[in-house]
């Protein structure tokens, strides 16, 4: 059955994209354009994805999550360090 009439995307295609990692309607749209024209199929896509369509964060390897958080914190620290401090004249 067609989910997206604008681009001819079927339920099976949406499920295949979900199996390969597309967990949100936006990610499905990025994979096959479904939902990017008239938008009437976005609710159908949401229903097909449903709850549990994607792995929960807790189910992921905690080392990967810790590494990702550390990398993000380091990037923030580098960005903050690269901003020069205001001079006394600028601060006043």
Automatic annotation (TrEMBL):
InterPro entries: BFD-associated_ferredoxin, BFD-like_2Fe2S-bd_dom, BFD-like_2Fe2S-bd_dom_sf. The keyword Iron-sulfur applies. Keywords: 2Fe-2S, Electron transport, Iron, Iron-sulfur, Metal-binding, Transport. Gene3D superfamilies: BFD-like [2Fe-2S]-binding domain (1.10.10.1100). One of its GO terms (molecular function) is metal ion binding. The keyword Iron-sulfur applies. Residues 2-50 form the BFD-like [2Fe-2S]-binding domain. It holds the Pfam family Fer2_BFD. Belongs to the Bfd family. This is Bacterioferritin-associated ferredoxin.
